[in-house]
Each structure stands twice: as C-alpha cells, then as structure tokens.
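Query structure, 624 tokens:
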C-alpha cells in the first residue's frame, strides 16, 4: 500500500500536469487583455518565479554535465544512467505544488498586492528567520526522515539517486516538499506580516534557496578550499557540494540545509567533510582518470547539436528527433556554431564505464555540412589530428573515428594520421570492419542477389567481396569500370563472375535487397520492387519514401548489459545502442588488439571482429 502523501496527485498526467498553471496564466491574460492593468499581479509573479526556478535548475544541470569544464571537479566520478534520469524525470513537480500554494496564499491575503518593490529591513529579517527557524526546522525534519518508516516510505526515493545532480534536489515525495514549502515559506511570510517584506525579497530568497540546493546536489566542487583556510568560521555557515555528497554516500551524517553549524551542534558532521573537500578542490588542477577508449564524434546539424547532455539532459536521454520547442533556439545554436568554428577545440561530451574501463566521447566542433566545404577540410583534419595526438599523449589505448571524421576524401579513413605519426601508441580505428559485419549479418542467408550503391567505397568494396565469396550475385552500381575491375580482381577467381557492374538503377528493378552506401532520391528508390528492404550505411540516412518497402537503420550494436553510467543516446540510436564504428573501437579496446584499423577493410577480418563483438556481449540491434 502506498504511504499517505508519498505520491504526487498529478503523477499520472504526464506533460498535461503543466495545465495546472492554467488558472494563473488565464487570470494574467484576462487582466492584460480586458482590464486596464493586471490586477492580480502576484499571479504573474508566481509564474515568473516558477520559470526562474526552473531556469536555475536547468543552468546548474547544464553546468554540472559540461564535462570539459567539470570533469576534474566531479565528486562522485560515476555517471548518471538512464534509470536515474527516468526516476528524476518529474523533478519539477515541486514547482507546481509551490505555485498552487502561493496562489492560495494570494487569495487568502490580498494585501500582498501592496508589497513594495524594495525594503532592506525585509532582507535582514528574512536572514535572521532563516538562520533561527528554517535551518533548525529542516535539520531536525531531515534527521527524522532518516528513521525507519519515514525513510522507507518517503526519503528513500530521494536517496535512490546514486549520483547527485541538480535535478536530484527536486526529486522527493509530496510530503517532503510540503514540509520544504513550510521551511521556505516561514521567513517570507513572517517578514511580510511584520511589515518589512518586499517583492525583491521574495524573488531573491526563493532564487537563492534553489541556487544553494542545486549547488549542493551538483556533484561538482565549485567552492575553493582556500576560502575556508582564510576564513575558517565560514565552513560552518555554507555547505559545499562535497559536504552534501557525503550525506548521500554516508547517510547518517551531514543533515543540514545550507549551514553545517547545525550538524556541528547535533554532532552529525562527517569527519571526512573538510579533508575530502580540500582533496577534490586541490586535485581539480590535475588531469583526471585517463580513458581507455575514445570515440571521436562530430555534429550532424544545428538541431541535433541541442541533443547534447549539457543542453537538455532529458532530451539527450532519448533518441534524437526534431522537436518544435527546439526551433526558437536555432539562432542561438547558429551563433554557437560560428563561435566553435572560430575558436573551439575538440571537447569531452559524455562517458560511461564498461568492466572497469572508462570510455569517453569527444566531439570535433564541426557539423556535417562543414565536412563538404573544400576550404574547411584542412581545419577539420587539424582538429582530428590534435585529438589523436592528445589521446596518445595522455595514454588512451584506442580512438575510434565517427562517420565523417574518417571520410576517404578527408584523410583516407584515418590513414593520413597513422602515416604522418608512425610512432603513435594509441590505436586509430575507423570501425568499418564491424560496420560491414553488422550489415552483412542483417542480410538473410538465403538471399541470392543484392543491389549495392556506393559500391566502390571502402564499405562497398568489402561488402561486395564478402558476398561474392558467399556466392551472392552483387549488382555494383558504378560508372567507373576501372574501379569496378580493380575490386573484381581482388575476388577469388571462381567468385569474380558474381560481381556485376551496373550503371543505372533500372538494373535493380527485380532485386528486393538494396544496400545503400550513397544517398538516393525518392525517384531512384522508385525503381525498387514492392517488398524491397533497404539496408544502408549512408550518412545521413535516406528518406523512408516507399510505404511498400522497409528501411533498415544505420549499422549499430547494443552495448553489453553491464555498461555503467550511460545516460545519453547517440543521435537517433535507441538507449544503449551505438553506431557500429563506435562499437568497433570498443571491441578493439576490449580485445587488446595492437594494430591500427585504417584505410581499406581487411575482408578476412570481418568474421573475426563480428565474433569478438558477440563474445564481449555486444549484440546486433535487429536481434532484440
């Protein structure tokens, strides 16, 4: 049975819960449109304050997940996984509760409309009441919520988040936030009743309250330890993220709201609080843990750039799709793109752990269209080269190149860097061997004929040679007889006749298995017979134009079940699924292979890499 007041009344409403703001918004709009002025001014203030509080949490969320700024200041080095993100999905429930309670207070006390904008006495009174009432009230309530029934049925929800995050601050039960509303409301209400309240006091206190709660749950140490060395008494008046993180790892200590003074008075200060804070703050200037594997990704387009975890965490935790709410942000994304083009270097965007190995994703600050600008290619190669040399310098074992970062016309599939730096210790991997294996294993064993576009590319060549060995007839679409014959000569003599050059799409009008390695238009797709399945390794994927046909996704694999700290999706991939070129680097690292995988694909290694991937628990998405 659910404990009383543990569930939120609107938890089943989904996004429709925001309609609860409707009465406030309607009252403001009505006054604005039909009356000379907004009579119920506090309805507007409540909406603005809720938006401001949401923005504070969002900004702290963005900062704490901007890993290229915070990775060396992280207190708990683990990542926030999908399970925690889902649990904290409705972290903003408390904003609705506080808005409704504030609206009730406005109805009961209409004199609130007469509050002045500024009154310095109110801030002094507020601070005094916060220290003498709110802090001890929260401290003792918090201690009681860590005992028996209250912890099991209420507070354990908050502590179910193993890695703290600014949204964790709002992740609690209905009862807990009712009490928190009392804690935050007493100083404001008392100051107003004593005649020294003001609108700026309400805005300031609520904002500061949320700011400090987000700070404590940020998992990033931002308070320099030198402050407490110069002003020792200050450590009893302001907690730190490290201080509160210890409460989540060792729950019998550090109960205070913002002031450790009350823990000191209650003898509940964790003995390691200051030492750990000093260590994390001091070590922030040092290099952190070296990743074993790096996937070097790139942007796709402006809209997808907002799929990064440090933009919107919840949006990044689901497969990318264009959303209406993103469109107003496009001008900002465009400005950021120009700034990155001019000044930015490769940066860390996400990470996860796999069997004790740290895997990171670095991003080259370039978008898809820039890879096809002749004047931009040299700069892109420079960024990729810098990333490889940095990985080599710090001790990364394997670095895998994403789709456009290994473009043949750009750098020969990574060959340029390996030949230029023959003494590289880091292994450079294009991952195309596993990409080919994924595509080939999607093709039914009884297929006798396939149509292949992009037939003379690295992947096209490998797929054609592999299939002809299986006695599958391959219709290779290419206008270059010379390149076709070169590939044909690589095939065993008794298999060469299975490779057939075609120059028009009409040649495949009776073939129901298309392997698309070059983007094709809806008109070109129209030559496929009904029931055709389009396998593809083209970026971006082709448009699903034909309703009487089926379309495969880009080659991808699901990471093993024991992956830890994974909380973001790789572009359009499902949760836990990565592009095959990413997975190829993972396999390379787990196997401990010491060769580079660049340039042409070794067809003889396709089955070897495929079996190694399955051995380590990676699975094809199509088998799920």
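Result returned for the query:
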């Amino acid at each position: 049975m659910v404990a009383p007041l543990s569930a939120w009344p609107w938890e089943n409403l989904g996004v429709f819960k925001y309609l609860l703001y409707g009465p406030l918004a309607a009252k403001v709009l009505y006054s604005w449109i039909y009356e000379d002025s907004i009579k119920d001014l506090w309805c507007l203030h409540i909406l603005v304050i809720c938006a401001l509080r949401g923005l504070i949490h969002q900004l702290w969320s963005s900062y704490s997940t901007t890993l290229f700024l915070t990775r060396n200041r992280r207190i708990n080095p683990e990542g926030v996984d999908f399970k925690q993100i889902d649990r904290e999905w409705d972290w903003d429930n408390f904003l609705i509760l506080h808005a409704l309670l504030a609206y009730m207070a406005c109805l009961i006390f209409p004199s609130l409309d007469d509050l002045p904008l500024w009154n310095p006495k109110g801030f002094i009174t507020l601070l005094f009441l916060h220290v003498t009432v709110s802090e001890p009230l929260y401290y003792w309530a918090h201690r009681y919520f860590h005992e028996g029934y209250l912890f099991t049925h209420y507070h354990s929800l908050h502590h179910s988040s193993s890695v703290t995050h600014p949204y964790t601050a709002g992740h609690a039960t209905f009862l807990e936030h009712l009490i928190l509303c009392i804690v935050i409301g007493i100083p404001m209400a008392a100051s107003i009743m004593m005649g020294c309240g003001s609108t700026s006091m309400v805005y300031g206190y609520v904002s500061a309250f949320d700011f400090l709660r987000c700070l404590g749950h940020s998992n990033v140490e931002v308070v320099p330890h030198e402050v407490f060395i110069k002003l020792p008494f200050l450590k009893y008046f302001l907690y730190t993220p490290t201080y509160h993180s210890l409460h989540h790892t060792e729950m019998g200590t550090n109960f205070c709201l913002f002031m450790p003074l009350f823990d000191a008075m209650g003898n509940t200060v964790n003995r390691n609080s200051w030492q750990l804070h000093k260590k994390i703050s001091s070590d922030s200037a040092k290099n952190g843990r070296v990743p074993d594997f790096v996937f070097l990704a790139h942007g796709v387009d402006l809209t997808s750039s907002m799929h990064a975890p440090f933009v919107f965490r919840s949006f990044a935790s689901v497969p990318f799709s264009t959303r209406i709410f993103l469109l107003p942000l496009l001008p900002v994304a465009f400005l950021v793109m120009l700034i990155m083009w001019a000044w930015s270097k490769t940066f860390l965007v996400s990470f996860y752990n796999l069997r004790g190995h740290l895997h990171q994703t670095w991003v080259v600050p370039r978008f898809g269209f820039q890879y096809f600008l002749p004047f931009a290619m040299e700069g892109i190669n420079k960024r990729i080269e810098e990333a490889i040399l940095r990985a080599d310098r710090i001790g990364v074992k394997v670095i895998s190149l994403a789709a456009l970062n290994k473009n043949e016309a750009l750098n020969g599939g990574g060959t340029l860097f390996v030949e230029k730096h023959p003494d590289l210790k880091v292994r450079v991997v294009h991952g195309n061997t596993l990409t080919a294996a994924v595509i080939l294993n999607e093709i039914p064993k009884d297929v006798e004929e396939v149509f292949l576009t992009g037939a003379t590319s690295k992947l096209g060549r490998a797929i054609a040679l592999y299939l002809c060995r299986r006695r599958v007839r391959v219709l290779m679409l290419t206008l270059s007889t010379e390149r076709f014959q070169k590939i044909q000569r690589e095939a065993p003599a008794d298999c060469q006749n299975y490779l057939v050059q075609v120059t028009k799409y009409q040649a495949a009008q009776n073939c129901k298995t298309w392997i698309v390695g070059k983007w094709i238009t809806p008109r070109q797709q129209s030559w496929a017979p009904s029931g055709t399945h389009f396998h593809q390794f083209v970026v971006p994927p082709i448009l699903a134009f034909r309703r009487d046909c089926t379309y495969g996704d880009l080659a991808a694999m699901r990471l093993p079940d024991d992956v830890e700290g994974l909380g973001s999706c790789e572009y359009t991939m499902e949760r836990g699924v990565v592009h095959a070129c990413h997975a190829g680097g993972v396999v390379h690292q787990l196997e401990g292979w010491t060769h580079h995988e660049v340039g042409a694909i070794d067809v003889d290694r396709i089955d070897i890499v495929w079996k190694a991937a399955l051995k380590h628990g990676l699975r094809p998405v199509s088998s799920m």
